[in-house]
Amino acid sequence: MAELVRLEHVGDIGVIIIDHPPVNALSVAVRERLVAAVRALAQAPGLRAGVLACDGRTFIAGADIREFDAPPGGTTTHDVCEALDHSPKPIVAAMFGTALGGGLEVALACHARVIAPEGVVGFPEVRIGLLPGAGGTQRLPRVTGALVALEMITSGRHVPAAEALATGIVDEVATDVRDAAMIRARALADAARLPRIRDLPLPPVNRAAFDAALGAITHKARGAVAPAEAARCVAMALDTDFDEALQQEHAAFQVLRTGAQSKALRHMFAADRAAAKGRDAQPWPVRHVGIVGGGTMGSGIAIAMADAGLEVTLVEVGDAAMQAAEARIRTVYDRQAKSGRLSAAAHAARLAHLSFATDVAALRDTDLVIEAIIENIDAKQDVFRRLSTVVRRDTILASNTSYLNIDLLADVVDNPERVLGLHFFSPAHVMRLLEIVRAGRTAPQVLATALALAKRIRKQPVVAGICDGFIGNRIFSVWRKQCDYALEDGALPHEVDAALEQFGMAMGPYAVGDLAGLDIGWAQRKRLAATRDALERYVPIADWICEEGHFGQKTGRGYYLHQDSKRVVDPEVTALVERASAERGLRRKPISAVHIQTRVLAAMVNEGAKILAEGIAARPSDIDVVLVHGYGFPSWRGGPMHTADAHGLGAILNVVRSMFAESGAGWQPAPLLEELVASNRDFASLNRLG
Ligand code: T1G
To answer: Is 105 assigned a catalytic role?
Structure first.
């Protein structure tokens, strides 16, 4: 096995090289060897200076996340920074790829930094519920200023090389970073200079701006604790001795590392990657994507594909619809260009990837076609029939349907193995979740191709089996019922929304419904009316609102009155809610936020257990990924299945049993949930098997 860390003599420069694939993460073993290499460099008579470099695809991408569950021990990243701080010879970091977290902290403890043009730096720790725990909150402000450091550390964002140079994080951008770093190291040795960031005075701070930024962080964090803790540490740079501040930063890091939120966010880090893992099959190349249907979804999908540099041909029925689709897409790109998010060159490149047609014959040489027309199985089957006479036999045919049976589409084409579902979430060029729906005959290579495409278009994929609503919409339709029951029992829409926003959701279900349009759900309920279990408790409030022609924001009224882009309580809806209670013979009583939160969670988990037992989802963490990336479930809780484990499955099962006693049909406890409780296991034990 290649050496994890080696010291190479290149003339009078010692090049310390880390080789720890895949991302040169700082494991304990790497850290130990890194300290030894820094000391060996110091003692090597023929070496005047050093370079810290990495083999492989990136400079150090941070501490090894897999070690955070183990008790701390061994050489820490702080020890590495201390060794660099005390090096008698200048050491220059040669950065490229993603120099993140502990990797950036180590680089900041070097005497200078060179980065490759496509390299990025950043402190993403808050995204896994942590904070930079090896001096990042104290060194970064000394080069960028406290306000810039506060934003970078509490947002966790990646900072491109040019910005890193402009803010003083790096000293040089160079194509051959190792070479440039050696030149810079030799120059420091010649000048007998050992510049250390810890010795720099903090640049002047606009206290009012800093305090205002501090105040905004907690609100933006929506229940996540790490950003505020990280901010508190950055604030120490203003008035606390460096070494004292390092002690306090390290203590704060340890508290977060062992806390529930970081455990949940580290679970999500692993869950996202498990869901995206390809199977053994080799993916096919995808260069040219066809899209049938240029409405909101089709246009959004076209943008997502063009953003990834794919050729896109969008087909609509007739010139008017085609031009409307083109205008819809151009509007998005023009807005991005106007806001500065898209350069003129990138704007032009994206539009150059897009072509529009009114005949599916234009899709002849596509590698994949995604149908995104109305949610009507007959219309979709027609499209698939026509496509299979036009495209190659190995062109993958996908439907963006959110609940229809993909097998019925595979039935009407030759070579049904190439058919699957690609369920995007609106707006498709923004929302990260992509449900890849595996049909009964979908070939492994087709599934592998979809997973590879998801990574390319920066989507978070989850493979789902076929059922009504796949994973996300099926669970959404179930826990929404618990919210409707709460309305009949005594709550009002804004109270239910407030309870779930307090739980950490971005928006409550009634506010989301008004935003997305209530007519979509209404059409679906009417579609399912004939098959609905007559014994199921059915709440008619949403139907009553829709029967008034109130579909939410787009009509100015839904669950709320929408005035000047504000949501206000609608007394007529309150009257409808009270009427529903009366017609069910219920005496309304106050419903607590905890009651609503617990019922919603139990409903999600119980349906999730049924989905697992039916093989619709491969593992519980896939369900967490769907709810977090597609439905606003707070990531710092780790998704419903992880939250249930933390809650205790026995307690969840008791709530499900009381829901079944109260509301009957549809609320039977899932056998898998009962089995896990009986055998004292949790959903995490199933993730390890998945
Ligand atoms: N530790 C261990 N493994 C890691 C890792 C890490 N930090 N980062 C990535 N991997 C694995 C990942 O699990 C996957 O493995 C493979 O690398 C490719 O990752 C001390 C406390 C670097 C931008 O938070 O953001 O430093 O599944 O699929 O899309 O104060 O990975 O193939 O077996 O994501 O090209 C701070 C987290 C840690 C960076 C690459 N650092 N990683 O993205 O590939 S805390 C982070 C990422 C810290 C200090 C603090 C991304 C990436 P496998 P990938 P990618």
So the answer is: yes
Are 479 and 439 part of one and the same domain? no
DSSP per-residue letters across 59-74: S---B-GGGTTSPP-S
Check if 57 has its Cβ closer than 6 Å to any atom of ligand 1. Answer: no
- Give helix 472-489 / helix 649-663 axis angle, nearest 10°: 60
Q: Answer yes or no: pTM beyond 0.70.
A: yes
DSSP code at position 240: S
Please check whether residue 276 lies inside any domain of the structure. Answer: no
**Domain final residue, candidates 216, 237, 258:** 258
pLDDT tens readout for residues 402-441: 889 999 999 999 999 999 999 999 889 999 999 999 999 9
Ligand 1 neighbour 128 (Cβ under 6 A) = yes
Q: 1 falls in which pLDDT band (50, 70, 90)?
A: low
Q: Is residue 267 part of a domain?
A: no
Same domain, 411 and 358: yes
Report the pLDDT averaged over residues 672-681: 98
Is the beta carbon of 124 within 6 A of some atom in ligand 1?
Answer: yes
The CA 273 to ligand 1 mean position distance, Å, reads 10
Average pLDDT in the chain: 95
Kindly state if the Cβ of 553 falls inside 6 Å of ligand 1.
Answer: no
What b-and-e string marks burial along 466-493, b requiring 16 or more CB atoms within 10 Å of the CB? bbebbbbbbbbbbbbbbbbbbbbbbbbb
Q: Are residues 14 and 154 in the same domain?
A: yes
Structure tokens at 277: 């893992």
Distance between CA 351 and CA 355 in Å, rounded?
A: 8
Residue in 8, 32, 67, 125 annotated catalytic: 125
Q: How far is CA 328 from CA 296, 374, 425, 458, in A?
A: 8, 18, 17, 22
Q: Which residues of 630-669 are buried (b: 16+ CB within 10 A; e: fewer)?
A: bbbbbbbbbbbbbbbbebebeebbebbbebeeebeebbeb
Instruction: Express as a percent the part of the chain with pLDDT over 70.
Output: 99
Express each pLDDT in 49-78 by its tens digit: 999 999 999 999 999 999 999 887 899 999
Q: Which of 173, 127, 167, 155 is nearest to 213 (CA)?
A: 155
Task: Name the nearest CA neighbour of 144 among 203, 188, 187.
Answer: 203
**pLDDT value of position 55:** 97
> Is pLDDT at 336 greater than 90 in this prediction?
yes
Q: Which residues contact 116 (CB under 8 A, 6 or more apart)?
A: 95, 96, 97, 161, 173, 174, 175, 177
Same domain, 371 and 422: yes
Cα–Cα distance between 132 and 37 in angstroms, integer? 23
Candidates 358, 606, 352; CA nearest to 479 is 606
| pLDDT tens per residue, range 519-577 | 888 988 888 888 888 778 999 999 999 999 999 998 999 999 998 889 999 999 999 99
3-class SS letters over 569-628: ECHHHHHHHHHHHHHCCCCCCCCCHHHHHHHHHHHHHHHHHHHHHCCCCCCHHHHHHHHH
Q: How many domains does the chain have?
A: 3
Domain that holds residue 396: 288-464
| pLDDT at residue 17 is higher than 60 | yes
Longest pairwise C-alpha distance within the chain:
91
pLDDT digits (tens, 9 = 90+) for 254-301: 999 999 999 999 999 999 999 999 778 999 999 999 999 999 899 999
CATH number at residue 140: 3.90.226.10
> What is the torsional sign of CA 244, 249, 252, 258?
negative
Q: Determine, yes or no, domain membership for 195.
A: yes
Whether the predicted pLDDT of 471 surpasses 90:
yes
Other residues' Cβ atoms within 10 Å of the Cβ of residue 331? 11
Is 125 among the residues known to form the active site? yes
Q: Is residue 561 part of a domain?
A: yes
In terms of domains, do 78 and 213 share one?
Answer: yes
